[in-house]
Amino acid sequence: MINQNDKAQVLIEALPYIQKYQKGILVVKYGGNAMLNPELKDMVMKDLILLQTVGVKVVLVHGGGPEIADMLKKVGKESKFLNGLRVTDDETMDIVQMILAGKTNKDLVNILETSGGKALGLSGIDGHMLIAKKLGDEYGNVGDITKINTKIIFDALDAGYIPVISTIACDDEGKVYNINADTAAAAIAGALKAKSLIALTDVKGLLKDVKDENSLISEVRVSDVKALIKEGIISGGMIPKIDSCVYAVRQGVERAFIIDGRIPHSILIETMTDAGIGTMFTNL
């Protein structure tokens, strides 16, 4: 058990980080196993509430891939992916909208509220926050964000809420699109000029050797990413996640992180301690 002195030491170590983030914006992209495991989900929500309580303006951007896949299976529809993106025909789009803007979004808001936080559930359609165009016919109703209307997000933050944003968007005519959650979180963080973007994933971060979990690369300059892709260190499913981090940093976000959402209280460890646990991307 932690003694009183150790507890005090933890708080002292956190102080400069609290001061750094106070009144700044932290965008968290949430998905993966941390979203499926009830205990981890509860810890993530409590981390966000703690950050909100000490003055950090938290924005939660979420996906819902496993829940979408489960519903598609129930209706006898196969999940199809192309280049890591869910191919979204009209029927699939209806299910994506129902799950993301409905059940998943409201479940997260409910947990935050019952845990003592203040949360407001939003989708990219609300206030036409996320405007998009079709990415390509081969993807169906998958969109590429062209504009972000930040007013509704700032209004929620200024009123003391954690905006909980599901990643569906529309075009100027009202056509609805499915947006990749990593892409949406990076675009939102950039538009808000957030201090940090944190992407919760199912891996420790960027590994020099994917077979060796002890080969974590703790810091990467965005200018080095192309070389790391060429060397094969960044490959496969990590490419879009890292591309999102690079985009966010180049849009003015001070730091972007990929961290292991399977670790309890990973957000607090990354933001409020000297050690950190994932991979940090910076412009330096």
What is the fold-level CATH name, i.e. the topology of the domain at 21-200 and 257-268? Carbamate kinase
Q: Mean pLDDT, rounded to whole units?
A: 91
Largest sheet: 8 strands, mixed
Give the overall shape, derived from the CA principal axes.
Answer: globular
Low-confidence stretches: none
Q: What is Rg? A: 18 Å
Instruction: Look at the structure and name the CATH superfamily of the domain at 21-200 and 257-268.
Output: Acetylglutamate kinase-like
CATH first level of the domain at 21-200 and 257-268: which class?
Alpha Beta
β-strand amount: 15-25%
- SSE run: HEHHEHEEHEEEHEEEHEEHHEHE
Estimate the helix proportion, in percent.
40-55%
Structural class: alpha/beta
Q: How far is it from the N-terminal to the C-terminal residue, by CA?
A: 40 Å
Strand order of the largest sheet: 5-8-2-1-11-13-14-12
Provide a count of the helices: 10
Number of strands: 14
CATH architecture field of the domain at 21-200 and 257-268: 3-Layer(aba) Sandwich
Question: Would you write up a description of this structure?
Answer:
- It is a single chain.
- The chain has 284 residues and is an alpha/beta fold.
- The chain has a domain at 21-200 and 257-268: Carbamate kinase (3-Layer(aba) Sandwich), CATH 3.40.1160.
- It contains ten helices and 14 strands.
- The protein has helices at residues 4-21, 33-36, 38-53, 65-74, 90-114, 151-158, 181-192, 225-230, 238-250, 266-272, and strands at residues 25-30, 57-62, 81-82, 85-86, 119-123, 130-134, 143-148, 162-166, 168-170, 176-178, 196-201, 219-221, 255-260, 279-282.
- The strands form four sheets. It has an eight-stranded mixed sheet with strand order 5-8-2-1-11-13-14-12, with helices on both faces. A two-stranded antiparallel sheet has the order 3-4. The protein has a two-stranded antiparallel ribbon with strand order 6-7.
- A hairpin with a 5-residue loop joins strand 9 and strand 10 (176-178).
- Helix 7 runs parallel beside helix 9 (238-250).
- The longest helix has 25 residues, at 90-114.
- It is globular.
